[in-house]
Amino acid sequence: MTINGQRWDLEHRTQRASVVQRGGALQSYSVDGVDIVDGFADDERPPAFNGAVLAPWPNRIRDGRWSRNGRQHQLPVTEPGTGAALHGLVSDVLWQLDAVSADAVTLGVPIGPSAGYPFQLRVTVTWSLSADGLRCQLGALNTGSEPAPFGVATHPFFRLPDARVDDIELLLPAGQWLETDSSLLPVALRPTAGSELDFTRPRALGGLRLDTAFTAVTPDFAGISEAVLSSRGSAVAIWAEPDFTWWQVYTSDYFEPDSERFRRSLAVEAMTCAPDAFNSGADLIMLEPGAPWSASWGVRPQLG
User: Fold this and answer.
1) How far is the C-alpha of 174 from the C-alpha of 246, rounded, in Å?
2) With contact defined as beta carbons under 8 Å apart, do 234 and 304 qualify?
3) Domain spans in the chain, listed from the N-terminal domain onward
4) Sequential DSSP letters for 146-211
5) How many beta carbons lie within 10 A of that of residue 258, not counting itself?
């Protein structure tokens, strides 16, 4: 066992994936020996939440403070640079094995009452491989006695063969983007039309720096929304079911410019709620006692 706990290796035809206990995270995913996600080593903690599940909220809560029904809550500030509570409570804990097979693994983790989040949930993730690609099914169950606010996302970084971020074309048919302040916290929703953040048609990222949430994404007839990354004849389509109403796109500028990870891969995160949703309520899920929730997103690679 490593610092990331146990690892499970999945296989389907030419696809390979590894999942670890820490954060219920996708450690690696490849097709025909080509890496599709930017993962991490067995002896390396995920350097930027790579592949981890973010719950019971994704992104940031301003100052870690929020209120509901007249009750004030203070979460631990986990990102000192912004003064925010970042990416939930379970990204750095060891999840429990629920089930495993050759091409799928299900992990779960309890969330008990804690400082700033006095609710009880059990969150699950199933990573699976099939002819359709990689699928991530997320679930939650309110095991407590009162309604619980809930949001979730996963934090994969995607790669394309022989391409870095500047080489990637992005298609994300979103009608709005979220302007943020210097602490990456919401200011206002803005239309993408006519802006440099309009990806309703494929556009090269070039030198654009993004750590940006998008919403009002045009779905297909089944309500599925999709982002597509492409370069030099290869593409990765990231799809998400209707509960995922927000997409965070991050150009991996967090790393030092001389780091090999700097702008090497693009994080594309399907989120069920907006940043700071515990305060704004934007698309926040309220789970009633005993109520379950489940939704999926996935990846369809097409290598040139």
Assistant:
1) 9
2) yes
3) 7-302
4) S-EEE--EE--EE--TT--GGG-EEEE-EEEEEEE-TTS-EEEEEE-TTSTT-EEEEEE-TT---E
5) 6
Architecture of domain 7-302: Distorted Sandwich (2.70)
CB 177 within 8 A of CB 214: yes
Give the pLDDT confidence of 46-56 residue by residue, as tens digits.
999 999 999 99
Of 38, 35, 49, 42, the residue nearest 20 (C-alpha): 42
Any residues with CB less than 8 A from the CB of 182 and at least 6 apart, and which?
none
| pLDDT for residue 130 | 98
Using an 8 Å Cβ cutoff, are 132 and 37 in contact? no
In sequence order, what are the residues at sequence separation of 6 or more whose Cβ sits closer than 8 angstroms to the Cβ of residue 44? 3
Ramachandran area for residue 33 (φ above 0: left; ψ -120 to 50: alpha; else beta): left
Confidence label for 304 from pLDDT (cuts 50, 70 and 90): confident
Instruction: Judge whether 89 and 56 are in contact, CB under 8 Å.
Output: yes
Residue 72: C-alpha distances to residues 23, 56, 99, 278 (Å): 28, 17, 38, 11
pLDDT at 244: 98
